[in-house]
DNA sequence: GCAATGATTTACT
DNA sequence: GTAAATCATTGCC
């Protein structure tokens, strides 16, 4: 079943990031459904420097982060890679969870088509830019609602024991100063689909 | 209006 | 291990 709006609209983005592990992210592109279990996330809040919306800096790009929880924030980075975030919290509280890696569970062949030839199948979705390409997401998906039928997250009933979750500092945000050290990255311990 | 730059990936020295 | 690819958005002129 799809995660309800109330899941996203809580005000604890770190907790939501942790609870998203083990849930399954689906997309529907031209009636082709692909999906992957979330194995790596990062929490971002406008209260810390790692976030695009730091200091409640509202721009055209991150506008969707200021909407209430349950929207998708898709952003193009380094000119060639897309990233998916899940907007959380309520209106004007710009918190979001970045989905960094998923484990493919549906539409494997379609994902392989989109990704092209790979040296190692574990590279299919083991990184933020890779999983968006595998799932067919691009920046036109920015602002889509996660309770609609193009992109959504399901709770499969799978329970992740607390000891299987590992927290660590986030990746690639050295510019964030002290906030870069916050252990707001969550991974499923030992999962092979986690990014390096 | 224009230059600087980044929540990355890939291929090559 | 390091560097290049590549472009929308941002922030300053």
Features of the shown structure:
single chain; 196 residues; alpha+beta; eight-stranded antiparallel β-sheet; 8 strands; 30% strand; DNA-binding
Give the number of DSSP strands.
8
Helix % is 10-25%
Mean model confidence by pLDDT: 94
Determine the strand fraction and express it as a percent band. Answer: 25-35%
Which overall shape is indicated by the principal axes computed on the Cα atoms? globular
User: What's the number of helices?
Assistant: 4
Write a structural description.
- It is a single chain.
- The protein is of the alpha+beta class and 196 residues long.
- Helix content is 14%, strand content 30%.
- The protein has helices at residues 5-8, 13-20, 108-115, 128-135, and strands at 24-29, 32-45, 72-77, 81-88, 95-106, 151-154, 165-168, 185-188.
- The chain is globular.
- It binds a DNA duplex (13 and 13 nucleotides) through residues 42, 44, 50-52, 59-61, 75-81, 83, 85, 98, 100, 123, 127-130, 139, 170-173, 175-176, 195.
Short structural summary:
This protein has four helices and eight strands.
């Amino acid at each position: 079943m799809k995660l309800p709006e109330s899941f996203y609209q809580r005000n604890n983005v770190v907790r939501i990031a942790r609870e998203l592990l083990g849930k399954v992210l689906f997309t529907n592109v031209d009636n082709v459904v692909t999906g992957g279990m979330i194995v790596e996330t990062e929490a971002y809040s406008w209260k810390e420097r790692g976030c695009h919306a730091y200091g409640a800096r509202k721009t055209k790009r991150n506008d969707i982060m200021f909407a209430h929880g349950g929207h998708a924030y898709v952003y193009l980075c380094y000119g060639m890679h897309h990233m998916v975030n899940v907007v959380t919290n309520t209106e004007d509280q710009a918190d979001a969870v970045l989905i960094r890696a998923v484990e493919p569970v549906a539409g494997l062949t379609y994902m392989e088509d989109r990704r092209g030839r790979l040296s190692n199948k574990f590279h299919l979705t083991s990184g933020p830019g890779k999983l968006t390409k595998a799932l067919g997401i691009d920046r036109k998906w920015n602002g889509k609602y996660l309770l609609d039928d193009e992109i959504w997250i399901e709770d499969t009933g799978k329970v992740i024991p607390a000891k299987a979750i590992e927290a660590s500092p986030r990746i690639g945000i050295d510019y964030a100063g002290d906030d870069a050290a916050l252990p707001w990255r969550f991974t499923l311990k030992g999962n092979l689909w986690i990014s390096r």
